[in-house]
Amino acid sequence: MLTDVALKNLKPREKAYKVTDRDGLYVQVSTSGTLTFRLDYRLHGRRETLTLGKYGPSGLSLARAREATIDAKRAVFEGRSPAQEKQRDKRRIKEAKSFGEFGERWLVKAPMADSTRAMRRSIFERELLPVWKNRLLTEITPDDLRAHCGKIVDRGAPATAIHVRDILKQIC
Fold first, then answer.
1. Partner residues linked to 53 by β-bridges
2. Which of 29, 48, 71, 99 meets the CB 3.0–4.6 Å disulfide criterion with 132?
3. Domain boundary among 72, 93, 114
4. Looking at the 3D structure of the chain, how many domains does it have?
5. What's the domain range around 10?
6. How many CB atoms are closer than 10 A to CB 80?
7. For 78, what's the count of Cα atoms within 13 Å in the CB-facing half-sphere?
8. pLDDT at 53
9. What are phi and psi of 116, to 5 degrees?
10. Contact 57, 38 (CB under 8 A)
11. What pairs with residue 60 in β-bridges?
């Protein structure tokens, strides 16, 4: 079983190699010395690998990698492929150039009643588009959302702030 001390002591070799932890989790050590958490699992008889992220101060901790392993194992138990879900999410973000484009696509394709769609479109166009139309989805942070909802509440529209939060969470 891996520890933080053991991870810090791993050195690069001429070829990449793996150091196993538990539950299918392992660290791949590249020739440059980069440590990457990965998870091997089987789904419908096929072996799949999920890359969880890099180890280090700007990446994942060992504890967080183990938590992500538990989440991924739960998805596999439910019959979902965490690796394919991650790829779908990446494609979804890449395809949508901006928040405005992705929001428009979401408004058209998301399953909802016509009356709900009309209400959400109105809020989307009035409250969200003017602020974030040209920003990438990855650039919108929870702090941005909190600040924007705070402004809406301050002007006396707390129900609208709740709708804005819900719409943004569904889009992103």
1. 37
2. 99
3. 93
4. 2
5. 4-93
6. 12
7. 10
8. 93
9. -65, -40
10. no
11. 55
CB 141 within 8 A of CB 102: no
Give the phi and the psi of residue 124 in degrees, each rounded to 5.
-60, -50
Token pair 């699992």: residue? 41
Instruction: For residue 172, give both structure tokens.
Output: 């992103």
| 113 and 162 co-located in one domain | yes
Residue 112, Cα to own-chain centre: how many angstroms? Answer: 24
- Which among 44, 68, 93 is the end of a domain? 93
Give the type of residue at 102.
Answer: F
Which residues sit opposite 39 in a β-bridge?
25, 50
Place of tokens 């129900």: 159
Phi and psi at 123, nearest 5°, equal -65, -40
75/155 same-domain check: no
Q: Give pLDDT tens digits along the chain (172 positions).
A: 899 999 999 999 999 999 999 989 999 999 999 999 999 999 999 999 999 999 988 888 999 999 999 999 999 999 999 999 989 888 876 766 788 888 898 898 888 888 999 999 999 999 999 998 888 887 888 889 999 999 999 999 999 999 999 998 888 7
Contacting residues for 163 by C-beta, under 8 A, at least 6 apart: 119, 120, 123
